[in-house]
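haha ok so turns out i had the wrong file open the whole time. this is the CORRECT one, sorry everyone. sequence first:
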Amino acid sequence: MDSPVLEAKGLVKTYGHGKTAVGVLHGLDLCVTQGELLAILGPSGSGKSTLLNLLGLMDEPSAGDVLFSGRSTRRMSEAERAALRSARLGFVFQFDSLLPEFSILENVTMPARIARGRTEEPIEAAETRALELLGGFGLRHVRDRFPSQISGGERQRAALCRSLINRPSVLLADEPTGNLDKHNGELVFKDLRSLCEAHGVAVVMVTHNEAAGHYASRVLHMLDGALREGPEAAP
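then structure:
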C-alpha cells in the first residue's frame, strides 16, 4: 500500500464554548495516498468545508492532528503552516477568484511570484511552467487575455493551473464545479482525474455534485461531521 501523503487523525472541530458550543467534526480519521482522487460528498452544513479548511491548514482543529507525509502540523507556528501550504498544497474553490486586473498568465504565475522569497526561483522558470500548464489544459491561446474575456469554464481551468504552479503534492478542491454548467463541470472532473493519473497529485474534493463519483478513485460521504463509505452512507 502506498504511503499516505495526507492524514487526519481524530479531528474534532467545535465552535463556541459551554452550552452554546456547536460540534462540526467528531473525531474524524482520513488517509489520502499519492495519485488518489478522493471525492467527499455531502449536503450543505455536513462539515465538508470545515474539513477542507483543516486539511488546508487554514484553520486549527479543536483536537486531533493533520499530517503531511507523516509530519505532524499540530504544534507548528503560523509561519511554518504558511510555508507548508505554499510548498505542498494547491487550492481550487467554487469561484475561480482570478484577479481581474491581471492576464491569465499573470494570474497563473501569481503563487510562484508570492513564493519567490522562499524558493528563489527565477520568474522566467515559473512562466515557462505556467505556459506548459495552460497548454495541458487547452488554454495557451488565452494566456494574454483577462478573466472577463474568457468563459466561466476556462476561468475555472485557469484556476486549476494556478493551483498547480508551485508543484503541490495535494490539491484541495471545494465545490470546484458549483459555479459551472454540466458540460464544463464534467471537463473539470476529467482534468482533476488527469492530474492524479499523469502527475501523481493527490486530490481531495468536497462537493454535493453526485457526478463526481464517476471520476473519483474513491468516494466518501459526509453526514453530521463523520465520514462513511459505501452508497448506503449517502444522505
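The first strand starts at residue 4 and ends at 15.
again sry for the mixup
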